[in-house]
Design a protein that fits this description.
With 428 residues, this protein is of the alpha/beta class. The protein has a domain of 240 residues: Rossmann fold (3-Layer(aba) Sandwich), CATH 3.40.50.1100. The chain contains 18 helices and 14 strands. The strands form 4 sheets. Strands 3-4-14-9-10-13 form a 6-stranded mixed β-sheet, with helices on both faces. A 4-stranded parallel β-sheet has the order 7-6-5-8. The chain has a two-stranded antiparallel sheet with strand order 1-2. Helix 7 links the parallel strand 5 and strand 6. Helix 3 crosses helix 12 and helix 7 packs parallel to helix 9. The longest helix has 21 residues. It is globular.
């Protein structure tokens, strides 16, 4: 393992856009639109965030201030070998995982919250707003905003707000104002509540509320996933992992990560793809939100109200209402445009798993490695287990590396409810 943090932590973010196999379809306004969604981005996003979203530069320098913050929160995060998992499975494969749960907020989300908050602060912004699904992005935003002396308002998907009360608490402790979405604070939220008072909410709805709230109150909006600027910032994960593997003398064969919008998978895998390292890349989603198996590759709105520009992505439709599943971070209707393109080109493969499958994988990982993974990350673990067992069957001595995007210590109520449902189903 590399011990010099300064050497491992990259000085530049990596942007895969110029290295994609074909040009990325550009964002666009809908035909006959009453206003320009692209112009709206100029209003709500910090200027440097928007510039980075639109750039085709391969490498963008990480500001010294942001790099210092990365080091202060514990970057680089550990790359660990899952030896007890290997022994349990009896596989000849080596398994490594990048542990993003080692950050103060417990997930990878702080990697983009810090630079976005920094760029907002540089503009003199005093208050930022965003949405959150499972709560990890909201937690990261609340902390980053506080670090840079700003207030934060967070619209949290209602079902996650109810399922994860501790996430709400930690956001509030960090200084954030948290509201269960849909709310009565926005016209779009009121519309949804009038149509369905018991609506569980969705990330698309929460995004629309956050954007409307930002516009109405002249605030800046921070984006947590889907847009390529977020994957750009998350590239610190993959670049660190490459340096750590080099120090160990390991070359990865298979790289695996879960996908909600695509930021943790992209941040982890894209630097490897761009550098031609690795033979197989696997994006893992929830079978309960089957966007990879049933979604279409088309232009769609990232948010439910259609306030953001249309982007070409794999999507189930911006009006899709996901079921209130155990893994709130995977309840998004689409996937990032760059990831969607790589999947359509056959460079990135996919799998989808259901609750029972990921619960079994999570338990195996907890009992072998001692780490409680986030339910979202347990999807990646399931794919790792299957890949390792396939290596056992064929005798392949491959190296599997996955991104454990967050810990699950604040997701224990979700695991508790999973246990109850599984036991109940077994007794039938």
């Amino acid at each position: 393992m590399v011990n010099n943090a300064e050497e491992i932590l990259p000085k530049y973010w990596y942007n895969i856009i110029p290295d994609l196999p074909k040009p990325l379809p550009p964002p666009r306004d809908p035909l006959g639109a009453e206003f320009s969604r692209i112009d709206l981005l100029r209003t709500i996003l910090p200027k440097e965030v928007l510039r980075q979203q639109l750039t085709i530069e391969r490498y963008i320098k990480i500001p010294d201030e942001v790099r210092e913050r990365y080091l202060a929160i514990g970057r680089p995060t550990p790359l660990l070998r899952a030896k007890r998992l290997e022994e349990y499975l009896g596989t000849p494969a080596k398994i490594y995982f990048k542990f993003e749960g080692a950050t103060p907020t417990g997930s990878h989300k702080i990697n983009t919250a810090l630079p976005q908050a920094y760029f907002a602060m540089e503009e003199g912004v005093e208050h930022v707003v965003t949405e959150t699904g499972a709560g990890q992005w909201g937690t990261a935003t609340a902390l980053a905003a506080t670090m840079y002396g700003m207030k934060s308002t967070i619209f949290m998907v209602k079902i996650s707000y109810e399922q994860k009360p501790m996430r709400k608490s930690i956001m509030q402790l960090y200084g954030g104002e948290v509201y269960p979405s849909p709310t009565d604070l926005t016209e779009f939220g009121k519309k949804i509540r009038n149509e369905r008072p018991d609506h569980p909410g969705s990330l698309g709805i929460a995004m629309s509320e956050a954007i409307e709230y930002a516009l109405n109150n002249h605030l800046k909006y921070l984006v947590g996933s889907v847009l390529d600027v977020v994957i750009l910032h998350q590239s610190v994960i993959g670049q660190e992992t490459m340096a750590q593997l080099d120090e160990l003398g390991e070359e990865p064969d298979v790289l695996i990560g879960c996908v909600g919008g695509g930021s943790n998978f992209g941040g982890f895998a894209f630097p490897f793809i761009g550098n031609g390292r690795g033979k197989k890349y696997v994006a893992v989603a929830s079978a309960e939100i089957p966007k990879f198996s049933t979604g279409e590759y088309k232009y769609d709105f990232p948010d439910s109200a259609g306030l953001l520009p249309l982007v070409k992505m794999i999507t189930m439709g911006n009006n899709y209402v996901p079921p209130p599943i155990y893994a709130g971070g995977l309840r998004y209707h689409g996937a990032a445009p760059s990831l969607s393109l790589l999947m359509k080109e056959g460079i990135v493969g996919w799998r989808e798993y259901n609750e029972n499958q990921i619960f079994e994988a999570a338990q195996i990982f907890m009992r072998t490695q001692g780490i409680v993974p986030a339910p979202e990350s347990s999807h990646a673990i399931r794919a790792v287990i299957e890949e390792a067992l396939e290596a056992k069957k064929t005798g392949r001595k491959e190296t599997i590396v996955f991104n454990l995007s967050g810990h699950g210590l604040l997701d224990l109520p979700n695991y508790d409810s999973m246990m109850r449902r599984i036991v109940k189903n077994e007794q039938r």
